[in-house]
Amino acid sequence: MEKTTPLSELGEFGLIKELTDDIQIKNSSTIVGVGDDCAVLERNKTTFTITSSDTLMQGIHFDLMYQPLKHLGYKSIAVNLSDIYAMNGQAKQVLINLAIGNRFSVEAIKEIYDGMKLAAEKYGVDIVGGDITSSYAGLGISITAIGEVDKKKIVYRSGAKENDLIVVSGDLGGAYMGLQLLEREKEVFKSNPQAQPEFEGKDYLLERQLKPEARKDIVELLEKMELIPTSMIDISDGLASELLHICQASNVGAAIYDEKIPIDPDTYHTAVDFNLDPYTSALNGGEDYELLFTIKQEDYDKVKGNPHLSVIGHITDANNGVYMMTKEGQAVPIEAQGWNHFREEE
Amino acid sequence: MEKTTPLSELGEFGLIKELTDDIQIKNSSTIVGVGDDCAVLERNKTTFTITSSDTLMQGIHFDLMYQPLKHLGYKSIAVNLSDIYAMNGQAKQVLINLAIGNRFSVEAIKEIYDGMKLAAEKYGVDIVGGDITSSYAGLGISITAIGEVDKKKIVYRSGAKENDLIVVSGDLGGAYMGLQLLEREKEVFKSNPQAQPEFEGKDYLLERQLKPEARKDIVELLEKMELIPTSMIDISDGLASELLHICQASNVGAAIYDEKIPIDPDTYHTAVDFNLDPYTSALNGGEDYELLFTIKQEDYDKVKGNPHLSVIGHITDANNGVYMMTKEGQAVPIEAQGWNHFREEE
Hints:
Chain A has 346 residues and is an alpha+beta fold.
């Protein structure tokens, strides 16, 4: 019998590496292929085209029991644009592929599309194509985002250098705590459909999970500050996983400080209520869609005191590894604990 | 209760129209949005970027009972590139999104990817990104194709003019007859798993269905002939459906002649064996991925006698409607009978 390897053995990133490792670029217009937030294509003298594509599957990425369709549409666009912003680019167009089960009505699909249009409006992108097909099994959404970036301003994952400062936008762990709340109320509802959900005062966390925003504003802020990061990535799978991507691509190590990680008080208190460590939630919880980037030391004054940005650590030599330093003075090695969809399924 | 409309009431094209009718283009770099084979984006002084995205879902677009995984990978790339060629463009890059159930092994996914790489090699495109995720519902493949086209040579669906000649590449109906053969043998196999499939001499038809090619060679032929069609589309849903798209986009009518429709002898005889009308199969059978285009009368000499091209009729005034003229002298109105995935599911 032929050898068969379960997908869970490799995980998403291992599988992608296995599949794409031997790809040779043939076209001169392909500047960068697989391996960053976006592919980078030659456009004209001064700009690159950047593009990225992602899929959201019902039951894996969203649960229609608590995910409003309109928010789902909005989120599907926002999370794809996030990859364009992670290259320091401007998002311009999206292609939308929907695979829908025939239990969905025209009105339901319109709800999803209304959310997509709302996001397109908000982020200033055009919906330019895609397709709609049926599916035997629930809803699948694939979005391709297309953008442009000034050749002098493009930021890759691979540019971090020793002593660079590590910066993160917004706050972390909120989307993960929102998910915990929703999952808890789902269980309550399953055992007692009359129960009212206990979401009072939790609006921020629910919105972080159900209707996240992409940080276009941070790209604009960087432009205004005349600050070009040395490396950047968006936080979709959790700070730990993304920091490791930057370190791997840049061949460097990193030290971050737990007390510097920005955590909203709502996230903090909710984590405590759930008997979860807030720092672990911020480090490993996914779907925050904040930007993680590195800057030169000399640019510190530009970000200092900015309420949208937190300096959480610095880049080290690769031999030093990747660590989180705790308040208690411990150095905890950072390992990838982001989502492994294939493992979750087991 | 709120009104709910079943998807089957609108069909794919009706639904797309309903969802996208009110979209306003905001970016100057968006030249054409929804409505042609590709979206058209500004690239540089002399070229446009063109892009298209499509999804293939297990159970809807392919049946793993008879679709070899490697061919499936090959086909998923080829059918997406077909949209680039339908704009008279050159395909350059693809993004690949895979959604896979955990019953698939790493080896199975590699088979699919090997087919994709083979197609990428053959058509000279680079695989530059995408993602892989799990799915509760079998296999889903979304491909985004990206290409370039000289601004002076781009061909839209909307350029057909009265008296233009209607031309089709290759031959039609083969993929549909291949599907009939595969479905028949599947039924035989279900009732008797020991039965050997009867595919002798049917290689051509099976290949048309399982491993179709995109007509890059026709775009190159047009270039060599110095012939720019007035309109063009690829035949994915059947000649009838695509001709109607051209007529609608160009606001014209059309007359085609059944005896001019190119049908391979294998297709013809197999249709007869199945008690199907070969012309109807050629007209309404999908997935041929040939190019359907219109040319000015004065360009007739360029295509005359070319073994890859058949002149099947001419464009008329819109008021004349869209007709097929039979050998017997009857004028049969052409109506869309392409795939309605939502109807099939019922």
